Amino acid sequence: MTNDIKISIRNLYKIFGDDPQNALEHVRQGMGKTELLAQHNHVLGLNDINVDMPAGKTTVIMGLSGSGKSTLIRHLNRLIDPTAGEVLVDGDDILSYNAKQLRDLRQHRMSMVFQKFALFPHRTVLENTGLAPSVEGKGKSKYADEARKWLARVGLEGQDDQYPHQLSGGMQQRVGIARALTSNSDIMLMDEAFSALDPLIRTDMQNLLIELQAELQKTVVFITHDLDEALKLADHLVILKDGFIVQQGEPQHILLNPADPYIEDFVADINRARVLRVRSVMRKTTDAAGDVSGEVDHDDTLESVIEASGGDTTNRYRVMKNGEQVGMLEMLDLVRALVPQGGSGDPESARRTG
Hints:
Layout: E1 5-16, H1 20-28, H2 33-40, E2 43-54, E3 58-62, H3 69-76, E4 84-89, E5 92-93, H4 99-109, E6 110-113, H5 125-129, H6 131-135, H7 140-153, H8 169-182, E7 187-191, H9 199-216, E8 219-224, H10 227-233, E9 236-241, E10 244-249, H11 251-256, H12 261-267, H13 272-275, H14 278-281, E11 283-284, E12 295-297, H15 302-309, E13 316-321, E14 324-330, H16 331-337, H17 347-353
Parallel strand pairs: 3-8, 3-9, 6-7, 7-8, 12-13
Antiparallel strand pairs: 1-2, 1-4, 4-5, 9-10, 11-14, 13-14
């Protein structure tokens, strides 16, 4: 994967109402969402958003209902235009695009996977999957092989002639993902894509996305209100509240270093052992390790290390990445990492809170 920036959002504001430009001045002077609505009858959707989304990685935008996350993702393909600010894709300001450029952006450079599947009920699975090429005027014979390839990849081989009503919810969303992949776009926008699914199916879909992303390295922008899902999927996590960014960064860093009481509340009930990775709590070193209890991978969860150690807090492990030592992990450091910020930080406290 590359660290090149695929999408860059700069000083983005969105205000809904009759006179958004006048309302914008109040917001820039410090007025918040509640006051703007009460005093000026305008809704503050987004407040000075600045985000860089790396190419080939998954950026997750999360927040509660009304935080602005769905409003934000709709700016990326200009389903919504901002009150002020910039949206750059591959360095181009898409707000300057004409109608032809905008069509090209939506048809070839971005695809979207919706919460409610958005499949055409009168079209077969194959025809739904080949929607993008069919809109360009290509016949089924031209796109069928490509569509079947992606249907097979998402586990729907042989379902070509089925109709959406004959599929389960999870299978319908797999069609939605196959459709996005058939469009061959670099960017996938996923707006609460798994929220309508049952928990077990939702987990399967998350695992499928992780597997596909490891293989294809698309630039994925994923919207969710679920922190567990966000921590599982995100390379870069952006947390919104009332239209502004509370904190953003690498998910492991946010979990270990919440920058705001709002974030502390969010992460308080997370199973930290299941989410945190060895790389986040190890001591970086390539020095000879001495006596160790074994080796662990830098990307192993702390939960897996605890299981392997049998709970012995005297153990220490050599941390490996691609066959080379990158650090050392002391079990006491692991235990301390399980204590949320604000705890005493001692192992006995960790056992009590666990």
